[in-house]
Write a structure and sequence with these properties.
alpha/beta, 7-stranded mixed sheet, 8 helices, binds S-adenosylmethionine
Length: 217
């Protein structure tokens, strides 16, 4: 069993093999950067189980948790900090960014999973991801449930993800030869923010993982 799954079982978070089993996927992406991660944010704290797992897995990271309704109080000697707020409110997400101040190496959205929350949180927080970092939308299956605001005619988190595939392809503006050279040729100033900065999108069962590119500034 991979190290992250072992720690998930220790703290009994539903990200581990007992429930969603996201940890083998996360281990694949995060293990190579485990020691370099400095700032990690998870939206959705509940009882703090996953935050404690992340603290043990990332030995040099400050672990930030954001939630509107958690009673979890971290050990004062830990590297975990809690910020209270509603991910469905732009002003709360702005306060979160102002409080953290630094770029975030990894952001995981495991909050309310409503469409408007996931979409607003992505747009507000993806720009704060550091080059080479990741933004993850968890429980993507809620995009198929009316209980989470996935109603006909309304954008879902899966729709957002599919639309962003167009941005990774530079909306078809670059199609010949080496993509980097082509971007230089068309000029990075003509690219949208997401065209410039989403390097890749990885889809797994119930997870969308966006990686941040650091060039083209
Ligand atoms: C699935 S639980 C998080 C579980 C935790 N990440 C873990 O793996 O151990 C979801 C959490 O999201 C929080 N939440 C729900 N809606 C929210 C919102 N609009 N803003 C902030 N937090 C929210 C809930 O209070 C709850 O604690």
């Amino acid at each position: 069993m991979n190290r992250l799954s072992e720690i998930a079982l220790k703290y009994d978070t539903d990200k581990g093999p007992n429930c969603h089993n996201y940890t083998p996927v996360y281990h694949q992406y995060f293990y190579p950067i485990r020691n370099e991660v400095r700032n990690f944010l998870e939206i959705g704290v509940l009882n703090g189980a996953s935050l404690q797992m992340w603290e043990e897995y990332f030995p040099n990271a400050r672990i930030w948790g954001f939630d509107w309704n958690t009673t979890f109080v971290p050990d004062p000697n830990s590297r975990i900090s809690i910020i209270h707020g509603d991910q469905g409110k732009k002003e709360d997400l702005e306060r979160l960014k102002a409080e953290i101040k630094e770029p975030l190496d990894i952001i995981i959205d495991d909050g309310g999973h409503h469409m408007h929350q996931q979409i607003l949180t992505f747009h507000e927080l993806f720009p704060t991801v550091s080059p080479g970092g990741y933004f993850v939308i968890e429980d993507l299956h809620t995009s198929y449930s009316t209980a989470y605001g996935a109603i006909p005619g309304k954008l879902t988190a899966v729709d957002l993800t599919k639309n962003l595939i167009d941005e990774v392809q530079l909306n078809g503006r670059s199609f010949i030869g080496d993509p980097i050279k082509s971007i230089e040729e068309i000029g990075s100033g003509t690219l949208s923010f997401y065209e410039k900065f989403i390097d890749s999108i990885h889809i797994h069962k119930s997870l969308a993982i966006f990686s941040r590119r650091g060039v083209y500034e």
